[in-house]
Amino acid sequence: MLLMALDHTRDFFGNSGPNPRDVAEPALFLTRWITHFCAPTFIFLAGLSAWLYGRHGRTTGDVSRFLLTRGLFLVVIEFTVVRLAWTFSPDLKFFVAQVIWVIGASMVALALLIRLPSRALLAVALLMIAGHNLLDPIKAADLGDFAPAWHVLHERGLIRFGRGVSLYVLYPLIPWIGVMALGFATGPVFALPAPRRRQLLLGAGTALIIGFVLLRAGNFYGDPDIWQPQQHALSTVLSFINCEKYPPSLLYLMMTLGPALILLAVFEGRRGRLWDFIAVFGRVPFFFYVVHIYLLHALAVIYASAVSAEVGLSLPAIYLMTLFVIVLLYPLCRWFAGRKQESKQWWWSYV
Q1: I want to staple 122 with a disulfide (CB 3.0 to 4.6 A). Which of 28, 185, 227, 246 is the partner?
Q2: What DSSP line would sit under 106-153, residue for residue?
Q3: Per-residue pLDDT tens for 200-254?
Q4: Cβ distance 258 to 266 under 8 Å?
């Protein structure tokens, strides 16, 4: 959650000129790169959470209904509350399908997939993650009337509707549904004793990292763009890890989910002031997501009015602004987490 706040602070306060994927700008590149861990981990853990939700005496039907209704709820929130947070505009002509959309839509898909046998579910998840780059040569521009559906499923792009309304799909569905299904399929690992669970997570994470390095080194599959040697060693390393997020390539997902699984093992059971501070935001991820965008956007408007809309913050200042926003939102998130934990009403599970 905190890395996500850094990425969005850069969106609102950074200079619009520099390309955050430019390997010749290491500090900016790495600031963007570390935030790549957010979306895959969110969506993987959403699937895992759905499995844990079903552990408390709930049937497959109960879990399926919850995924369906919460998923539809999130899709609606993306195009209303979240859209307003990003735009501050009531003009309902342009929409963007971002991370809340894809989490919601993937939940709807998972509501159907969890009715499969566990091995079949895992197979579908791995096929979506490992095989979707085989679809890269298929372009929406060549598909005629099927082009909008292809944007929703695999290739990011603009969908135009009547009366000037358009939707830009930034997060196509296919690989992300696979990531959420993989999280659900991983659920039984969390029913194992802690030592065995940590062993499996560390092993799987390490295997993904090694697999990423070997597959990326070959430059033959797993990402739309190849890496190339650069003038400097650091730039070459950055080129090696510069993988596509929209949609997430196989290599992108291996590069991010591998370390994420290791961190799940390493962070389990950690206690102390710092860990408790961080955990507050993790207990209210949806609430924090929505509120921090409104706050960042409001602060950006104030900053642009006071200074200039053309002058962004320096990279060190962006880090300081991120810290300021996190500290500012901590009491509110802590209060909301307490309310959520104490409340017995059903709707709290949706927020």
Answers
A1: 185
A2: HHHHHHHHTTS-HHHHHHHHHHHHHHGGGGTT--GGGSGGGHHHHHHH
A3: 999 999 999 999 999 999 999 999 999 999 999 999 999 999 999 999 999 999 9
A4: no
Q: How far is CA 214 from the centre of its chain?
A: 25
Distance CA 145, CA 159 (A): 11
Alpha carbon distance 284, 2 (integer Å): 12
Are both 240 and 262 inside the same structural domain? Answer: yes
Which of 146, 163, 191 is where one domain is finished?
191
Strands 166-169 and 94-97: parallel
Q: What is the pLDDT of residues 301-320, one digit of tens each?
A: 999 998 866 778 999 999 99
Distance in angstroms (rounded) separating the CA atoms of residues 122 and 5: 32
Distance from C-alpha of 188 to C-alpha of 118, rounded to nearest angstrom = 10
The rounded mean pLDDT for the chain is 95
Instruction: Count helices and strands (H / E) in the chain.
Output: 15, 3
Whether residue 115 is found in the same domain as residue 180:
yes
Q: What angle do CA 173, 175, 177 make, to 5 degrees?
A: 65
Domain termination site, one of 236, 268, 300: 268
Residue with tokens 């929130």: 77
